[in-house]
Every structure is written in C-alpha cells, then in structure tokens.
Amino acid sequence: MSKNGIKIATIGGGSSYTPELIEGFIKRYDELPVKDIYLVDIEEGKEKLNIVGNLAKRMVEKSGLDINIHLTLDRQEAIKDADFVTTQFRVGLLDARISDEKIPLKYNVIGQETTGPGGFAKALRTIPVILDICEDIKRLAPNAWLINFTNPSGIVTEAALKYTDVKTIGLCNVPIGMVSGAADILNVSMDRIKIDFAGLNHLVWGTKVYLDGDDVTEQLIEKMADGKSMSMKNIKDFPWQGDFIKSLGMMPCPYHRYYYQSDQMLLDEKKDAETVGTRGEVVKNVEKDLFELYKDENLSVKPPQLAKRGGAHYSDAACSLINAIYNDKKEIHTVNVKNNGTILDLPDNVVIETNCVVDKNGAHPTNIGHVPSKIRGLMQVVKAYEELTVLSAVEGDYFAGLQALTIHPLVPSCEVAKNILDDILEKNREYLTQFK
Amino acid sequence: MSKNGIKIATIGGGSSYTPELIEGFIKRYDELPVKDIYLVDIEEGKEKLNIVGNLAKRMVEKSGLDINIHLTLDRQEAIKDADFVTTQFRVGLLDARISDEKIPLKYNVIGQETTGPGGFAKALRTIPVILDICEDIKRLAPNAWLINFTNPSGIVTEAALKYTDVKTIGLCNVPIGMVSGAADILNVSMDRIKIDFAGLNHLVWGTKVYLDGDDVTEQLIEKMADGKSMSMKNIKDFPWQGDFIKSLGMMPCPYHRYYYQSDQMLLDEKKDAETVGTRGEVVKNVEKDLFELYKDENLSVKPPQLAKRGGAHYSDAACSLINAIYNDKKEIHTVNVKNNGTILDLPDNVVIETNCVVDKNGAHPTNIGHVPSKIRGLMQVVKAYEELTVLSAVEGDYFAGLQALTIHPLVPSCEVAKNILDDILEKNREYLTQFK
Amino acid sequence: MSKNGIKIATIGGGSSYTPELIEGFIKRYDELPVKDIYLVDIEEGKEKLNIVGNLAKRMVEKSGLDINIHLTLDRQEAIKDADFVTTQFRVGLLDARISDEKIPLKYNVIGQETTGPGGFAKALRTIPVILDICEDIKRLAPNAWLINFTNPSGIVTEAALKYTDVKTIGLCNVPIGMVSGAADILNVSMDRIKIDFAGLNHLVWGTKVYLDGDDVTEQLIEKMADGKSMSMKNIKDFPWQGDFIKSLGMMPCPYHRYYYQSDQMLLDEKKDAETVGTRGEVVKNVEKDLFELYKDENLSVKPPQLAKRGGAHYSDAACSLINAIYNDKKEIHTVNVKNNGTILDLPDNVVIETNCVVDKNGAHPTNIGHVPSKIRGLMQVVKAYEELTVLSAVEGDYFAGLQALTIHPLVPSCEVAKNILDDILEKNREYLTQFK
Amino acid sequence: MSKNGIKIATIGGGSSYTPELIEGFIKRYDELPVKDIYLVDIEEGKEKLNIVGNLAKRMVEKSGLDINIHLTLDRQEAIKDADFVTTQFRVGLLDARISDEKIPLKYNVIGQETTGPGGFAKALRTIPVILDICEDIKRLAPNAWLINFTNPSGIVTEAALKYTDVKTIGLCNVPIGMVSGAADILNVSMDRIKIDFAGLNHLVWGTKVYLDGDDVTEQLIEKMADGKSMSMKNIKDFPWQGDFIKSLGMMPCPYHRYYYQSDQMLLDEKKDAETVGTRGEVVKNVEKDLFELYKDENLSVKPPQLAKRGGAHYSDAACSLINAIYNDKKEIHTVNVKNNGTILDLPDNVVIETNCVVDKNGAHPTNIGHVPSKIRGLMQVVKAYEELTVLSAVEGDYFAGLQALTIHPLVPSCEVAKNILDDILEKNREYLTQFK
C-alpha cells in the first residue's frame, strides 16, 4: 500500500452519496492520509458528476487538507494504481430501478430494488460491469481492494469473488442501521451495542444483541414485541407481530418484512405505486432536489437532506472499513465475504454477511457453525436463488434465471417467473448483452 | 426374525387400503410366509375394521393359505412379538383432514392433506400417536420393523427416528408412481425404468431417469415439455410449463405443483371447494362407496375401485419392502430414511426420501453428495419447516409451530401463519394435548 | 456399449495374472459376450506377452467360444473402441519393486510394494502412465470403462479420477480376500458372508460382518481374538493381539499389520530380506516358474500354481465387475470410487474403497456417514499422504513428495523421508521424468 | 460479573507458577480490579502452598493494592462465587510426571509430559479431577469462567467442554512462545508479529506470519531453513531440516519435533534419561531451587529464575485473557475452544487451538475452513487419539485407551500400546479409580 498518500477510485462518483464519502475521508485524514480521490462516471452521468464533484472539491478546500479530487470519465485512469476502488454505480440509472419495481407489480409480485425480481434484474445488469471493473483492477491495480456497495451488494460481491481473484469486500448499511435501531429501542448510544450477525445481505439476522457486552436479546425482543421497532428509510415501518418476533427470538433486518409479511408489503407497495409512486420514483425526486442543493456554490459540507435518501451511513461505513484495512486495525465490521465454512449450512464458495475481524489482509469472519432451523431454511433458499442469479448474469443463462425466479419465495409460480423474466430481458435489452 | 411364520401388526387396520395389503401378502406367500396379520383399530373405527377385516378373511380363505387374520382393538396384543408393524392410521379420521384442508383456504392458502398447513396439522395429531406406538414396540417387540405409511410420511418417520430407536422406514407411493408415470410417458413397461431419487417425502425429484440402464432424462423432459405429464390421482393434472421443465432438467413429483405452481393450484382448490368439495370431502364419498363394496360377502378380492382412492401401490410397496427385508434381498427401494450425510446439503439427523439398498438390516441409501442449487434451496427450506414441525408436535411448542408455518413457502406472512396455527389448535384441541 | 460383442483391452497383458482373466471371461460368456481381447504390453514385456498370450489362445480354443485374443505392442490399437480397458501393468517390472522394497529397509523403514515409501515410489512411476492411458481412452474410446487393478490401486485410481474424466473404477482383491477369510474363520461358505467395508485401498476395515444377513461381527472378533486369523499370501500371518482386536471391534485388512504391528513387521521384513529375499525377490522366482509352466503347449487352463502368486481373485473380481456393469446388475461390489461425501470424514474428491451398487452407470457407494474415531484418524492421515503422493506424481512436486513421506505413519522423521525420497528419485530416474 | 472486585480461584495454587500470576494481576490492576485471590491446593501440596502463598502476599503488600490473598485447602470455599477459576494443578505431582516419562522409554517410545503416552497418562489422571471442579463450579459459581492451563491443556479442556457446560477456555504458552520465536528470528519486537494459528494444543501450526500486518511467512521460513530456529525451554533445539521446513511452508510448533523428528527426539530423550535425567527429574530440581528462593522473606517479586522453569508467559497469558473477558476487549488471543466448524476437517465438538476474538462472552474463533493436506492428516490422527483419550479417561474405558495409544503416531504397535497402557494403569492405580 502506498505509504505516502492513498489513491481512491470511486466508480459511480456522480452518485448523490459522494458527499458522505468525502466527509468520511476528511474526518479520518489523520490516520487515513488519502491523497487522490478519482470520481469516475459514464457519459450519461457527466452532469451529476460535475455537480457533486465540484461540491466535493469545495468540501476538501474548506478542510484545508492535501486531498486532490479528480473528475473523470476514464475508468482505467481512475483505477490505475489505486489502493481502494469503491463502487456506487447504478447501471441504467433510476429509470432502470423504476422498471425493476414495476414489472413484478404487474404480476402481483413485490417489486423492490434489491429483494425479489427487482434485485434479480439489477444483478443481471450490474454483474457484467463489476466483472469488467475487476478485469481493470487485475491489470492496472492488482493490489487494490474493491469495496463494493453497489446493490444487490451480496450478489454482486459473490460474482466478483467467484469469477475473479480481486480482493473484494461487500458493504451494506443495513447492519449499522440495525445497531442504530437496537440502540434507539434500548435508548442507549450506538457504541454500546454489539450484534452477532448471521445471514445474507438484506437477509441478515441479529442472532444476539449485546449492551456493553451483556446479552440483552431477550429484553430487546420484548420491546419489539411491544411495538417498538426499527426500520430503514425505505421500508414500511409497521410493527412486528408480537408472538412472531418472540418465536423468532432474534432481530430481523428491515428487508425481512418482504418475506415475513409478504402480503402486507405487497398491498402497501401497490398502494404507493398508485399514489406517491414506487420508491424509485420517490427517490428520483429526492435526488433531483439533492442535486439542486449540491449545485449551490456556497455549499461546502454534506447537506443534512442527504440523510433522507435512504443510504445513510453507507459511505461512512466504507471509509471506516478502508481505515481498518489500511491501519491493520483488527476491528470488527459487518461485511460481505466468502463463507468458507463460517455458516456450515451454506456452501463454502458463496457470500455471506457477518461479523469479521478486519485487518490489512482483509475481513476474517468469526465462526458461526450451524444456525437454528428457524432461520436456516429461508437463508438457504434465498442463497440458492442468489447463486442461480449470479450464474444467469455471468453466463447469460436463461434457464438459470428462470429457476432463480421460480424458487424465490416471493414468486408464486414458474409461469409468473417466466413472465417476469421475459419482461426484464425485453426491458433491459441494451444492458443484458450476455443473453443471446 | 421368526423363521416359522411372520407376524404382522397393522395399525389402522380398518383402512380402506387393507385389501391391497392382504393381496400383497398373499401374492408373496411363497417367499414371505406370513402367518399372522393383526388388524388393529380404535373404538371409533370398529365398524370399518369389521367390514374390511372380514373381506381380508375372505381373501385369505380364497387363497387357501395358512394365514390368520386377527381383528382387535388392543394395540399391544397386536404389537407383541410382531416382526413388522405397519401403520396406516388417520388420527381424527377424514373429518380432521377436511378441517386441515379448509382452515388454510379460509386465509387464501393452499389446504392440502400433507403439504403446507394441512400437513402440519396432520403431523401435530399423528406424531404423539406414532411415538406411543414406538413405546409399545420398544417394550413388546423390540426387534420389530416399523413400516410407516401414515402421512405426512417423511415427517412422521423423522419423529420416530429422532425420538426413539425403533427400526423405522417411511414409505410413500409417490416414487413408484413416478416410475409408472415415466414409463407411461416413454411408453415402456415400468420394470425397465429406474429413477435416481433425491429429496423429501412429497418433495422428491427424479434427478435422472434410466431406461434399461441408459440415461433417458433428456428425452423424458422433452416429452414432458411437450405436454405429456404424469400425476397422482389426487393432484391436478395440468401440463408443466415447457421452459420451466427444461430448465429444471429433472422430473418433479406431483406435489411439486404446490410449490412451482402455487397460484394455479390455489385457484383450483378454491374452485373445487366451492363445487365438488375439498379432496377430503371427495375421498369421504369414495370411501363410503368402497366400504359398501367391501361389505359384499361375495367379494373375496381387492376390488378394482380401490385404485381410484389415490393411494394405489401404497400397500404393495409395503409388502415388497417387507419381503426385501425378510429375505435379505439387497434390492433397491425408494424409502424414507435418516439422511446421515447422504445429501450433504441437509442435516445428518433428518429424514430424506431416496434410493436405498434394502436388506435384513434395513434400508441403506446410496450416496448422493451435493444436489444442484436449483433444487437445493426449496428442499432445504421445506426440511427446516419439517424439523420445526416435528419439534412443535413433540414438545407442544407453539413458537416452533409458528416459525414452521411462517417459513413455509406457501404461507405469505407471520400473521397468516398465526391465524392458521390458532385455528388448527382450536379445532384439534382434543388431539393436541401436548399443547398446554 | 457394443451389443454384439464386447471389446476388452488389457494393458500389461503379459502379466502372469492374465490366465485368470481369460478364465473369468470364458466362465461368464453366456451373459458377457466378449468378442475381442487385446493383450497389450511394451517392448520389454514382449516375450512374456507371447507366452501368456499363447496360453490364452489355447484356453479360448479349448472353450470353443467365439473370442479372439489379440497380442499387440500398440496400445492405441488395443484401446480404440474398447468397451473396457483393464490395467495390470507394472512400470519398471519386478526389479523396480525390489528396489522399492530395499530403499526403505536401508533406513530401517518398512519396504512394501503398496504401503509406505515402496507404494509411494510405485505411485510416482505409475501415475504418469495411467494419465497417458486416460488420454488415449478419451480420444479413442470415450465411452470405455477403465478398470484399474494396477497398484497402489486406490492412489492410481484417485489420480485418474482427479485429473481426467475417464470413467474409472479401482479394484483390489483385498475385500474379496477378507470375505473369504471371514468365511474360513466362521467355517461357512463365502457366499453367505457380507461385509460392510469402509476405508482406503489396502487400509480398509470390515466394520460389520454378516452371515446370511445377521450381524456376526462379535462372534468373528471373538474367534480372531482367540488366534484364528486371516491373511493374504504376501503378508505375515501372526495372530492379532486379543485385546487389541476386541477393542477394534471390527475386521482389519491384512495390510493393517503394517500400521498396527509396525515393529514386528519391520523385524520380519528385515529377516526375510537377509534370508529368502524381499517379497519382490520371492515373487520374481514364482513368476519365473509360472512362465515356465505357461510355455507348456499342452496347458490350456489356468494352472493351480497361480494361486500362490498373491493376487488370487484379482482378475476374477474384474470380470465379475465388468459383468455387473455390462448387464446393469445392481449388484454390490467393493471397489475404489470417488468419496463424494460417502465417508464424511474425508474430502469429497478423494478415492475410497467401499461397497457400491454397480450398474450400467458405474459404481454407486452406499452411504457411510462418519466413521468411529478409532479408525478415523489413521484413515485420514493415510489419505492425506495419498493426496500428496498424487500431487507429487502428477506435478513432479518434490516438496509434496517430501511432505507425503514425512507424514506417513511408517516414516519416523523428515530426515529419513528426505533420504528415502532422494534415493527413490535417483534410482527411478528414467521413469520419473516429471521431476526436473 | 462482580462490578466491585473480582474473585479469582486458582486450583493448584501452590504451583511454582503462582508468582507470575500474581504479578500479572498486579500489573493489570487499573483495568482489572481483582479483589480476592484464593490459592487452593491439596493436603500434599500444603507446604508449597504456604511458601508460594506467602510470597504472593508479600508481592501484593509491596504493590500497595487492595488485593486479598487467601490460602486454603477447601476447594469449594475457593470456588464459591468466583468470577474466574484458573487451574494449574498436577495430579500426582512431579513424581507422576517422571513415571509418565519413563514408562514409554522402557518400550523405546518417546516419553513426554504432554505428547504421546506420557500425555495420555496425565490426561487419565487429570480429567476426573477437572470434571469434579466443573461440578463445583456449576453448583457454587455458575457464571464463573474456567481458565484451564492444566496439561494436556487441549485434551483436558475438551473433556470439560464435552461433559459439562461450564464456560471453559484452555490456555497454553506455546502460541505466545511462537510469536516470541518469530520475533527473535526476524529480529523485531513481539508486538509487531501476528500469526495465524491452526491446530491442536501442542500441535499447532503458524500457517501465516505477519510483520506489521504484512505476510512475511516466506522470509521467516527462509531463515528457519538457514538454521535459525525457535524452541521452548524444554524441547531440544536442533535446527529443522531445510527442505522439510520449506516444503512445510509454515511455522511448526516446538512439539512438532516429536512427530517430524521422532527418531532423533527419542535418541536424545534416552541419552538425557541416562545422564541428566528425564525432563521431569530436571524440573524437580529446578522447582526445589525455586521454592528455596520463594521462602526468602525478603523476596517480594517474581524471581527471574522462574523463567527457566519452562512455562514462561503461561500465567501472564492467563491474566491477559481474563482481562480481555472482563473488559469486553474484543482482542485476539490464541486459545483452546470448541471447534464448531472453524476447522472443517475436524469434528464440531472437539477442541482446537486457534485465534479467537475474546470478549465478555468468551472466545470466538475466526474462521479457518479447510487446512492444507500436508498438515491435515497429522492433525486428524492426533485429534482422534485425543478423543479416544477423553473417552477412556471419563468412562474408564480400557479398550478406548488401547485404541488411543495404538493409533498414536509415536507408538509402533498395538502390543507396545498394550504394554504401556498396562504399566500406566498399574503405576497410577490410586488416581485412576474410573478403571475397574
């Protein structure tokens, strides 16, 4: 690793999240001496890149630190000799997301950015690009770490780890959000909470929750059963059924609602779609407003409105992870890594989301063993769906895609699976050239 | 094993299936010298026991063989020193089945005898009884084999194998039905077909199909994709979607429709319930007719009408299995046994349905290893449901039951799961004394 | 498979075992219509090939069957379109074996044809040749079965299965010898005995022994503890220590003596080497006598003297296995196949020796699960040695070879391992071109 | 955990190691407020207990801290309400150790305190006592942590974890000694070194060695191959064979010499036994001198001579571990814990030695997955020996003991195993009442 000055390449640098990322590097500069940040985007994202890139430059200027922000459309220039490559790109932009949400709804199936057929479509578009990026890294920055936050983060990370040997760690803000949620419910500060996580990205359970090291899972569950709950910005916040949450005996993640309360979630989604629009449509407006804000030449900090965007803590988690690697911190982070026997109920070569000791050599999961049967089955069937999705995305395998969607718990039949798949392929034709 | 005359005890001897069982023993008498058959039933089944028992006596008499049919309400007398105990009882009779079918339908969920909440309810009622029977066997006939065909056969067998050390083998007519179906599709005789089976009872896949030892899976799939199909008497017979069956690349079992075509199956069930009645209601009439036939003192053979009943080949499979054990045949039978690593993707101590070499020491599965991800996930989530069901049934564990139903692929939410569970407990209160 | 006439290619056709093979095919002709047998050997074996080949021709002639014996030095001609390729070749002939035996003895280590450093040396010589043969098969007879009896049979088979996709089954006469031994001890005929086998080639345990299907393991062990024992022609026949055999509670194979009685076996070997010569030297004389016999133009049957050779039943086991495949017999044979989870305590991709159901599609092991800790550790350490041996042989990897020998239970230190390895490489330089 | 003042109970408090333990607690007092230390011993150890106990009191007095040293022969008083129970007792004292060393030597087998038959004998004596202690803990201090350093530490810990549910962590100074050794070889300070450990107690490999987070394994191996080595006080320090250490490619532990250089180690031991005496005899003198020193009323610090004793860092490692638990440090320690799938090549319920994150809830291993075949086999066979040893010790199972010794790589035959076992049972009769 470069000793005098770290180089960061951020793919999808025109994202609205970028100010948080920049803020994160500024905050940590003392121990994490970032010298160059390359924000790279594609032609279609040029305008956004310029807007957010200029804000980033103003933020750095204000900090007085020796950090250089580079804006570029040349991905290879950005990646060359980078120490860390972070990804926050979105193939097809928000319009593709909106289509991902609407196609399943047409068939009375939940349409969500990362869960179910929506996430499947996003994976098909994203995986070829991530593999391209890995090719670049292999050639131009073979020692670089790839910190992926592009969704569906677990599936995309699995593709990178299965098909390349780029050092990749997948990241998501759900675990940190659950820590924050548990802290809220227990009315304590976040840093006193630790959670044992086991599962997959957007399907992770907090199997034990600790306050100052003491197991408080039962108390937390009692409070959740009493109606206190926690959620992400973009997931409906109705309370968990009391007996259910007690029988579960652990902390679900917000995305679990799609599985444990599929009927209600579908109803809500349909109502939203007819009134305020799908989440993608809502976000599109939020983004428009954000970029208006970002344009303000007097703005030189991350604006508080960004918090509404839904991905809060995402970029901060990335900076913190990069810091732990760079400084060999041996800290515990909850990230997406190769299973390799950590959870005995899943194959070795798949990606899981779990607590890891992070040091200069990467993220090392602490052992889990077998998980209880009550969470095992759901985790396994969704993982099988994910494996088939990766296969379909990499090989352009129609049959694998059809099986992936058919076995997904949210899809009611092979006929519906086929209809959705055909619509996805039709609608995303320009991005899905792997399918002949 | 008794060398001069085998003793069979058949629990639920008043079942309409009994004539097939008797026929099976008569046919095999030369190599399987059955001396005593105890047909045992409970007080409520006394009338049926007498009707079918008398038919059995007439059948034996006609055969001229030295077999004694005993009718009794004393289970322990029947079990004492038995060589084989077979089970075909139905706790709560057909009325309980009808209730099992109707409760889920009330919540827009598939209501089926063995699959989903209906099978769950049946397991709750049946498992305490099978464990009682195992107690009797342990005490009165410790060397006896328990051949279980009481449904849900895999779950009931798992309970027996997890909680007792009675030598138990679970049996189902689905595999033989699939062999028969494949033979029909390929237009050959059944004995030329061999199928590699992997999965769970009523969720078993034919991973390879052989004709005279040659792999003909692809040809078979092509024909199935063209619309030829196969099914059981009690499962709707619409054809499989062509691309789906090709992408699966193996032979599904009829009960797979509940998972792969949930939406259509639910619609059909609802229509049936409103018109001809649920399957249980239909069967109730079939049975009534059958017993009228059985009463005919001139009848001394298994009447052909029994084939309509749905359980065809069931009893014949049992006789054939008993024969293989008794005569140390080392034949291959498809039965339900402890996994013990046969399928590496399932826990060791659960029950699977697979090909086994059967000899005097029981059923020894041929090794499978890992199964493809396309069938793995569904198999795993259903197995997790089954394990929780066994736990709930044995311990009277409400929470385990709630989790079992919630994770079942056919149940759309924890709220619906709770409603169904509460209805089941309420409706079956007299049988479910394990729940306080 | 050719329906009108099977073609067999026997590599190492000049072996003294060939008459048994021919006899085996003659005996089974009715159900196994062998048409062409190609006996192939190398230039150095030409004389023996002619002698034994002519005997084979006389045997066939006497039988009056329509079998053609072909003698050739052209391996590819032999393999082309063969249905079965059997191997019984010996790279370096008996002189190499004698060197394999003598090198370890020089360092006070057991020197044995297949066990320990002697077997290691033989594997280094043999594996490159078997991979060459597999290349030929792939190209010239892609549907052929490779029936390997070349020693060390398990290791050689593992190399073929790991590095090629030729359909390979490894064979050894030890299991059939153990059945014969158990029958002798119990004083019954062999066909009434069945043994559950688990382990590796030349390290296989009879975990249960059955007489007419009844478990008689305990009785057998009692008799073995009383001094009755069993052994192979080429392994010393002193009795097992009584408490030891009882504590083992299962039937060891003759080669277990090298591990369980290393000290005594070494003493005996050293004494033999100084008096009658090593086993290889003895065999060399036996062979010389045999070939003198074979030359007799009046001889047209397998001479009884062959039984002394040590490999009795070897070729018969091969014919029987070929018959089971050809006729889709679904019979149980004890052979060497890929583990694939059969024994949960060994890796999936290694070769084990165990009971398999043999049909047209190969040998399918019956499931074993975990083995008891008393046999597990030895099985595992020897398997690790075998894996390293395969790696060393294929890649010419000196370090893998050094580790293989160091961890072998019969080698007392890394220094001795290095000395033996260096001597082996020096002595076998002409055969070990994979080592640079 | 008691918030105002920790209670420690040290079983075998009269050990010569106690001053290091006391020093460790004094050093850490600021963050680890120990209030009461109960040094408990048995009648035969009373004199030593008084000597070392009084030294402990003087050490505490000198520190001026509010720590109370209690000397007692009443183990239950010591354990009652303890927060941590540490063990450093030696059943049969050094005389038993000397006998453990001499019995194997009589049969030309390595006689070592913890490795081979010597360790086996020690396990037989120690395990019944540790289970008794666990009983006391269960009853009198159910929340206490048992920190076991009594040897053979891995085996004793395995017994505690298999047969009780006392929260037990096994400790050894070998890993810290290897860190120290690597630092010496690389000529850097210890705190810059981190090692990935995998294996069993006294059979642990350093699979990777890091300097400031960078992988320096290769450099270290090069230096070790050049003759630099590392060792413990009580293990012969001849250099590793160069090619061997390179082919291993990882750092062996000092006890590996018994396996990788058995012949040389045996020679050395025999020479020592005839000249200076066995290690036990040497230690007996060292101890005598130490206790003379300890008696000195002017001594109020740990004397430097203790370092010669061989167990250096042992007690310090214990204090550090206790501190990490008490203060929920999430630090990495190398300890003995239940495998639970950490190393996929060993059973779940056995004890391994590996890196763990230590917090208030115990020691959580970081995941390892499969280990390379070159270390796998030896690890597995020794683990099988350990499992049989635990079984033999707990059940008094002669046959399990005979198998344990027979499969141990250092024992050349079942006959020698039996002789050694019989001698051990005879010699230790008073301690081994579990054997009838």
TrEMBL record, chains A, B, C, D:
All residue ranges annotated as the Glycosyl hydrolase family 4 C-terminal domain in the record: 197-411
Keyword vocabulary terms for this entry: Glycosidase, Hydrolase, Manganese, Metal-binding, NAD
Cofactor binding remark: Binds 1 NAD(+) per subunit.
Names of the cofactor(s): NAD(+)
Pfam families: Glyco_hydro_4 (PF02056), Glyco_hydro_4C (PF11975)
Subunit structure: Homotetramer.
Protein family per UniProt: Belongs to the glycosyl hydrolase 4 family.
Protein name, as recorded: 6-phospho-beta-glucosidase
Organism: Clostridium brassicae
Lineage of the species this protein comes from: Bacteria, Bacillati, Bacillota, Clostridia, Eubacteriales
